[in-house]
Write a structure and sequence with these properties.
The structure holds two protein chains of two kinds.
Chain A (H helix, E strand, L loop, with lengths): L2 H19 L6 H15 L1 H6 L1 H9 L7 H19 L15 H21 L4 H10 L3 H17 L4 H4 L1
Helix pairs in contact in A: 2-5, 7-8
Chain B lengths: L11 H21 L5 H9 L4 H22 L15 H18 L3 H8 L4 H19 L1 H9 L8 H4 L4 H25 L15
Helix pairs in contact in B: 1-5, 3-9, 5-6
Classes of the chains: A mainly alpha, B mainly alpha.
Chain lengths: ~160, ~200
């Protein structure tokens, strides 16, 4: 797909989302719902006695019935459909040419930990804070976008062995 | 008339159904643009593949322009659009930490889910990492609660801060984006790699 056409289509999905639901796209919020639900299920006493979970569950009594959780289930379906149509369904570890699969997996986990943590601190990730925030001209969205991409560019040289 | 949910034109359940449908569109477009490939995503930071920048900024300016036009034609009330509040310190700190995660892990959360959907195992590991990272945040919350809530600015818009109108700022954004697209096209030629093909059809995902 031509990236500018793809970007315009993504913009239309974003507008549609604003028009229907009054909000933009997101991703990390759904993962937070899963984590809170997991903690509540595995350690209910801990969830009840910890301020963070207590507050969250009070404002979100059913974390798994949230807009973002349904949206992210759709993302899995949509990604699968596109992959199926494009003949790209395949179990695979994708990596730079000069690292082992094991290194790639280890750094993927570490990267996920950083991004997961940062998305909570920054109140949203690339989708919810940066992309959606920019389209509504939110200052926070622009700040987060510069933070994410600026840092990744600044560290690209350090991490070059992973990708080049 | 929009947003439909705020004006009670659709029910809460219908809103959830639409969330699912919107997600399908989101995931499909991410995957179809190759956002399910960590090498493509990382490629932006080395210049050999700037697809991310092109898609991301095109989507942002189309989104911003779309909201302006819908508002102009009375189809959406911008007062009812959710705007992420700005807590300056945590927006910067969170952004920096996410940037570290991006360059090490090669995905962001949305793209990693679209990659899991087509069987990428590195994306599956990344999603596992996301859950761990969020768990660390929620468990240790009292430690960073103060930083998290510091420098609250409300929900300011760039146009307010710069003392201009939404339209003028959006025009500026479009001009900046076009400049970035120009740089992106140059970079892809300058940093092209022998072991990496830009054309997505030739990429063996």
């Amino acid at each position: 797909m031509n990236p500018y056409v793809g970007g315009a289509l993504l913009g239309f999905v974003l507008i549609f989302s604003f028009w229907i639901s009054g909000r933009g796209l997101g991703a990390s919020g759904a993962a937070k719902s899963v984590v809170v639900t997991g903690v509540k299920t595995v350690a209910p006493a801990h969830a009840e006695n910890t301020a963070f979970y207590k507050d969250y569950l009070e404002s979100h009594p059913k974390p798994m019935s949230s807009w973002l959780v349904f949206e992210m289930m759709g993302v899995l379906v949509g990604g699968f459909l596109s992959g199926a149509l494009g003949g790209r369904l395949k179990f695979k570890v994708e990596k730079g040419p000069n690292v082992t699969k094991k290194t790639r997996i280890i750094f993927a986990v570490i990267g996920g930990i950083f991004f997961g943590f940062g998305s909570q601190l920054g109140r949203g990730c690339t989708s919810g804070s940066a992309l959606t925030g920019m389209s509504v001209l939110s200052v926070g969205g622009f700040v987060t976008m510069v933070g994410i991409f600026g840092t990744a560019f600044a560290l690209a040289y350090v991490a070059r062995k992973l990708w080049l | 008339m929009g947003p439909l949910i705020v004006n009670e034109i659709i029910s809460e359940n219908a809103n959830m159904l639409f969330a699912f449908v919107i997600g399908i569109g989101f995931g499909f477009i991410l995957e179809a643009n190759g956002f399910s490939s960590s090498r493509r995503l990382a490629g932006m930071f080395y210049g050999y593949d700037a697809t991310v920048l092109k898609v991301f900024f095109t989507a942002a300016i189309v989104g911003a322009l779309g909201l302006l036009f819908l508002s102009l034609f009375g189809q959406i009330d911008l007062n009812y659009i959710y705007i992420n509040p700005t807590y300056l310190y945590s927006a910067i700190g969170g952004g920096v930490i996410m940037g570290v995660g991006f360059i090490l892990g090669g995905y962001c959360p949305g793209t990693s889910f679209s990659a899991v959907a087509i069987g990428k195992l590195d994306a599956l590991a990344y999603v596992g990492g996301i859950f761990i990272g969020i768990f660390l945040f929620t468990e240790g919350f009292p430690l960073w609660e103060e930083f998290f809530n510091a420098k609250y600015l409300g929900s300011p818009l760039m146009s307010d801060v710069l003392g201009t109108s939404r339209g003028v700022f959006t025009l500026l954004l479009v001009i900046v984006a076009l400049g970035m697209f120009w740089v992106a096209e140059k970079a892809e030629k300058r940093f092209a790699r022998d072991d990496y093909k830009l054309n997505q059809k030739e990429l063996k995902f």
